[in-house]
Amino acid sequence: METIIFILIILIASILQTSTGFGFSILATPFLLLLFDAFEAIQINLILSLIISIALITKIKKDVDFGILRRFVVGSMTGLPIGIMIFLLIDINRLKLGVSLIILGLTIMLILKFRINQNKNRDLVVGGLSGSLTTSIGMPGPPLLLYFSGTNTQKEKLRGTTLAFYLFIYFASLIIQVIFAGTNKTIWVSSLWALPLVVVGLYVGQLLFKRINQKVFRIFTYILLMFTGIYLLIESLGLI
Length: 240
Known about the structure:
Distance between the termini: 17 Å
Shape: globular
Strand content: under 5%
Number of domains: 1
Radius of gyration: 16 Å
Number of strands: 0
């Protein structure tokens, strides 16, 4: 049963990551935490997300906003060490509770048509938040997704810039996680078994991306965020 759940998690999350640019960590991490220890779930997510980003970078390079990308990277330099300290010092359930409340609160603001103007300082802050969430729970996506949705960014630019940023943030976070939290055989064997599923997800996700219009993309974004926030909240309270 656990094998079937693992297959479904990786396949669906890979499709989402490829078609939207943010789906893998947001969907996979909460469910992987049901099957693995926290550091194992996070590192499996980091490895597979990095592979997806590497596979897609040549296809999405034309859609990347390199100015925003540079500021995200600079901002994340502050967030990365903060995130690993949070991971090592704070109870994982408390961390998930805090993240779930932030996701739900900001998603409600977006649904109510809250909008924010993009500027350089905010790019740095969002990069820092994303960096801290990556090393702490392996989920860089929520700050980026909420920011880009709030600025009404086109789906091509959103996907391209986030995937390019992931190349850096996942690689850096994986190294930091391995150094400070350690690693084991389960992580690398599970990641290896998941590779064929990732390949299938890459193919299906590319087909879906071409067929999703901007309105559907935005609605799907809200649904995914609400689902993740509610799931993390329920899980952090020990109700599942």
